[in-house]
Structure formats: structure tokens, C-alpha cells
């Protein structure tokens, strides 16, 4: 359906070499992630799995261009990442739809920023709303939708920019269990139709194993990549997968890797924008 | 049941509150009656104090007009051609000062709220000017503006500026960094972020500031119209005092109160129309 304006499928190869990120200023500064060496081929679905505060969202923030590396290099299709760009779309845990824009105008935001004429961008937005199954909610305000619907709009709003990379920071973490399972299937369905490179941050092992082509397990802070697990489960994947013996074995392995070693209390969650702001939602 | 309520204490409370907010325009008859009775009691107390020429030593009602005197004076004014001229002159001045304050307050407020340099440059002088009351500006206003009309508009401007400015700063600072970051990821530049994110986010604060500013503009009107002129409600009130026309003083005061209240309501209604998303309700 989007073939009309995609002559050449965007690539989306991510390469990080010796990456490290520092947060905080002055004496309080600390290294969140270090020694990240990572190559992600185009259109791979990669899940970043790790304990709270390990820096997986921070790494995602660097991919989005909201945070800068302290050391090392980070490139998309050979070009160094410098600042946010629509070709690296990001979906946060809490939706960031503009409350003052109707759903359709929210989805059309990216094309509007590119200067696409109004009629054309609204037609595009309708297509993408239909893709996420919300064609009937175009004229609502975001506050009138449920949490799951808000995240669907968010995904449509990012995908309309035809990003080379889709970055997702625990996008279903704030949803109830039922909705989360449904949204995982919705996401896989969309991804099969519009394949892009996906980097999906989660601390839910089932979610990571169900969605990904590959799971990267990260250590506690300072976060490093502990293990790189390829997932060969055939697609399309159904819910039966979670009881598959191979799935269960991999789940046990991830649980082992994620088990806290020294009984330290879990760290506070970091965000792709850096340190959590006091009182911010 | 108790387990569910314990888990989400907000949910149980939120629903009826949202309900009552929607029903606000229709007050129950009993509460309307109570409010009317309160107004009536106030009028009665005034009438008794004025008609019995009550003298409490510290404060005296001996020379004050009764409500009936004031009503007669108001009736007379309503049938005199002077009323339109007075109200018209005042409206033009207040509106002029208010609109100038709106432009300056929103412009400066957005700059201060979004740029540290602008804040450092603009806030110190503004903080010094802010506590100066309108009356204190009169001599300077007369010196600064060759036309007395402009100096009167300036006085109402000083009254309206600060509430609008400070509320705009507050609203612009409160724009969510997450919304700004996601707009940048979608391709928004600096100007687009201001237009699409910061200004709409600050709009509720701006409307509140504008409604307060409209009130203070009327507040400063009598002060402004003491400068000169032949027309204006403030001038009418002040002239009535110098002519010892006590009934008309109260008429002028009440008229200013009514016009001030009416225009604040109009500002809030305009703001309400400009923010249709705040009526949508529900989760955020």
C-alpha cells in the first residue's frame, strides 16, 4: 500500500563501535553503558533486554539522536548519527501525541514538517491510521483513546515518515497484560507489511523472545552486552510459541542472565532523554 | 470489591468528578437561591447602614447613598447620552492597553520561558518594574506620552502586562520535554516546536493570565482616567467625587465592576473556544 511513494526500500544498517554514554554533570556524572559493539543488519527485529536502569533506554536515546556518545562511534547506513531525525523514529513508553491535535493531524505531523500539502498528508495519514486499525478514530483527540490505541497512533505517526529504523522504548510497558499481548501481535503484523529495522527495548523476557529475530541481553549498570541470542522461531508467530520447549529453554537462559548477582536493589528507570526528570510523567 | 478499589483509588474518584464538571452550568435551584439570598442580604445591610446613617466611629455611613439612591442615579445615567460616551471611551482604552499587554506579555513570556539568555536579560528589569502600582506611573506617563489618551492606555497596559507575562513564562516552561523531543524526532525545527508544541502547551496558562490581566486593566482604569479626559467610567467616578455627587460614585464603581467581570468572562470564553481539546476530557 505504501509502494506508491517508496521507490527504493530504505536500508537501515546500524553500527556501533566502542560506544559509551555518560549521564549527569560534573562530579555526579557516571557511565551508563560502555564497550558497546553492535552491528544490526537492515530490517532485523532486535530486542534489547536488561534489568531496570541498565542503560538500554539510554542506548536507544543515543540511536534516536537525543543523547550523544561519550566515546566510540554510532552510524546508520555508514552515516554518523548527529541529532534526532525522522528516519530514526522513536516510540516512548508513554505516548507523546500532541493533546491539542486530532488523531489524524497527529499522524500527519511528520509530513507537515516536510512541507507536504495538507490534502496529500491527510490522505497519507488516513492510510497509516487504517494500517494500525484506527481508521474510525481520525477525528478524536488523543485523550479520548485508550492507552493501547494511543500507542497505535504513535506507531502510525512514526511509520508515516518511512523511517529506516523504528526505535521502541518499552512501548507496551504501561499497558495492561491483555492489551500488551494484543499490541505485540499488531506490531508484528505491521512490521511484516512495512519491514524496517526495529530496536525494541523491554525488560519482559516473553515479549523479547516472542517479537525478536535476535535478543541482546544487557548487564546491570554500567550496561554491556552480555549475550547475543539469535531467535530462529518461524514467522508468523502465534501465542503457542511461548510453550514451545526451545522458547522455554531460552527463557530459562535469559532468566539466569538477568538474575541479580549481589542482591542490590533495582536501579531507577532511565529514559531515552537522559536522567528521569523529577515529577515528569 | 475492596481489592479493586484499593488498587485504583483514583479511578473511583475520577468518574463522578468528571461528571460534575460537565454539569457545572446547571446549578441546583437551592444553591442558586442561596446565592441570590446572599446578594439580597448584602443589599439589605447596605440599605440599613446608609438609611440609618450608621456611625461606627472608625467607619461612617452618614454621607453614603442608599441602594435606592444609587438605583435612581443609575436609571438617570442609563437614559442620558453620556453613558455611551463614557463606556465607549473606557472600553477603547482598556482594550487598547489589554491588547498591547497581550502582544508584549506573550512575546516576552515565550522568550523568557524558552531561552535562558532572554530570561537573564529581561527578568531583572521586569521584576523591578512589577511592584510599581499604576498610580505611581501617572506623572511619568504624562511626561512620556504627548497625548493624554496614549498615557491612559499605557496605565491600563502596565496593569494587564504582568499577569499575562508571568503566566506565559510559567506555561512555556511547563511544556513537556518528552513532547518536544518526540516532535524533534518527527522532523520539527525550532520554529515548528514553538508553534506546534510550546504555544499550545502554554495556552491554558496564557488564557488564565489574560483573564486576570483583563481584570487588572479595569482595575487601573480609574487611575488612568484621573489623568484627564472628559469621558470614561473612571473619569465619571472621579468627577462625581469632586462634584460631591455621591450617588454617581457608587454607580461608576458598580459599572466598572460589571464591565471588568464581563470582559474577564469574555476572555475565558474566547480561550475556551481556542482550546477545543480541553473539552474532550478522558485520559491524557
TrEMBL record, chain A:
Q: Which superkingdom, per the lineage?
A: Bacteria
Organism of origin: Methylobacterium symbioticum
- GO molecular function per UniProt: ATP binding; ATP hydrolysis activity
- The Enzyme Commission number assigned here is 3.6.3.36
Entry keyword annotation includes Nucleotide-binding: yes
The record's section on SUPFAM superfamilies has: P-loop containing nucleoside triphosphate hydrolases
Instruction: Respond yes or no to whether keyword Protease is given for this record.
Output: no
In its UniProt entry, what is this protein called?
Taurine import ATP-binding protein TauB
All copies of the ABC transporter domain together span 16-245
User: Which family is this protein grouped under?
Assistant: Belongs to the ABC transporter superfamily.
**Keywords, sorted A to Z:** ATP-binding, Hydrolase, Nucleotide-binding, Transport
- What Pfam families does this protein map onto? ABC_tran
From TrEMBL, chain B:
Give the bilayer topology.
Multi-pass membrane protein
RNA-binding recorded as keyword: no
- List the PROSITE patterns hit by this protein, alphabetically: ABC_TM1
Query: Which keywords label this protein?
Result: Cell membrane, Membrane, Transmembrane, Transmembrane helix, Transport
PANTHER family from the xrefs?
A: ABC TRANSPORTER PERMEASE PROTEIN MJ0413-RELATED (PTHR30151:SF0), ALKANE SULFONATE ABC TRANSPORTER-RELATED, MEMBRANE SUBUNIT (PTHR30151)
Its biological purpose is as follows:
Probably part of an ABC transporter complex. Probably responsible for the translocation of the substrate across the membrane.
- Could you tell me what this protein is called? Aliphatic sulfonates transport permease protein SsuC
Instruction: Point out the gene that encodes the protein.
Output: ssuC_10
